[in-house]
Amino acid sequence: MLAPRHLIFTALEGALVDPHTDSFAGAEEALSELDRRKIAFILLTSRTREEIEPIRRKMGHNHPFVTENGGGIFFPDGYFSLRIPGSVRVARYLSVAQGQPYAEVCEALDDIAEECAVGVAGFHHMSLREIADNTGLHPRSAELARAREFDEPFYFTSADDKAIARFVETARARGFDTRRGPTFWHFSAKCDAARAVRSLAQLFREATHIKLRLVGIGAGEVDLLWLRAVDHAVLLPDSREAPKPSEHPQENPGRTRSIVMGDAPGAAGWSKAILNIIG
To answer: pTM (2 decimals)?
Structure first.
C-alpha cells in the first residue's frame, strides 16, 4: 500500500512569516521542497484576503488559504475540477464564506454594545489614519487590513470588567464570538478554522482519491483550535503563549492525540519541521 500523501495546513504569522516584517527568510528550503514534490500547503491567518495577497505573490503560493480566523476559504481559479459546494466568485478566487458577512457583524457589535452600555471602537468606526495609528501599520497596510469580510477588530472605550463580561455573554447568546487578541478584541460569527481544515481535507480527498496525512504547524495558543483537526500537529515555540510540551497532550478533543513542540521559532523552525515531516 502506498504511504499517505501529505496535506499541510500552516499558520502564517509567527510560523511561516515574521509577524512584523512579513519576511519568510529561512523557509526557502522547505518551500522549494514542497514545490518540487507538489505538496499542497494551506495558509491559515487572522488577516484579510487583501493583506495576504502580496505575501502569497512573493512566496509563489498557489494553493487555497483561510482568512480572518476561519471566516473565509479561498481557492485560486481552476484549482479543483470538481464543484465546490457553497462557493461564489470573489475577485480571482472561488470563496466559501463560513463567517457571517462583515456588515452584519458590525451592526451586531454596535447593537450589543448599546444594549450592554459599553463603548466600543471597531475598524468600521475608524478612519484609515486612526487604524494606522492604533495598529502601527503603514497607511497602505492599514488600508488592506480594513478590507474586512468577516471579522471585526475593536477595543472597549468605556467598560469595566463586569460590563465586558456582560457584553461577551450577550454576544454569545446571540451566536457571536468575542475573543481577546494581543492588540484588539475580535468580534465575529461562525468563523471556525478547524471547520475550514476539515472541509478542505474532504475536498482534497474527493479531488485526489488518495489517502491523505493531515499535517498542521501553528505558532500560538489560538492555533490549537485547528491543530486538533489534523493527524500530525507541530506547535512552534512562541515566547508569548506557547504551552510547555507536557501540557495535557492527551486531553485535546479531535483527531490529534498530542501536539509536538517544534525546535525553533519562526520561518527557520517552520522549515525544519516541514523537512522532518516530509522526509
So the answer is: 0.91
